[in-house]
Amino acid sequence: MDIVIRAAVVFVLLWFVLRVSGKRQVTQLSAFELILLVTLGDLISQTVLQEDLSLTGGTLAVATFTLLSVLLSWLSWRFRRPRRLLEGEPTILVKDGHVDDTVLRYERLPVDDVLAAAREHGVRDLAAVDLMVLEADGTFSVFTRSDAASPGDPPRRGSDVS
Known about the structure:
Membrane topology: Multi-pass membrane protein
Number of strands: 4
Distance between the termini: 61 Å
Shape: elongated
Protein name: DUF421 domain-containing protein
Strand order of the largest sheet: 2-1-3-4
Keywords: Cell membrane, Membrane, Transmembrane, Transmembrane helix
Subcellular location: Cell membrane
InterPro entries: DUF421, UPF0702_alpha/beta_dom_sf, YetF_N
């Protein structure tokens, strides 16, 4: 039982550290995928190197992490509130060409990163940006004023179709 408790505590600690470290630190991997990969690697190496001295202990630790990961993934899929807590939410950095400095400070994101993301999306001037979003996975989405729906475009989901 001690192994299950230690594995659960380490899982929660790793999740917390990744959430506090910021979205840009875990680009492309979800926090759970990163936790699972790092921890499973360590648990497997401890079992293989016999630091735990017990195959059962290593198997139990890996099973605990896997079970927690599956449970939290299911909760995230099923319910909105746990999803926001576990995976994070997109954050609006630029709206109508104006950078939100408060959000940049909160996300610990230099304005140079915002400018670089705009350039990567082919935008030279932030005044042309309608919306720039820091996604939960650490990537940037940039919508320029020219991205607005034209009259021939199909309606977007949730829009009024009258």
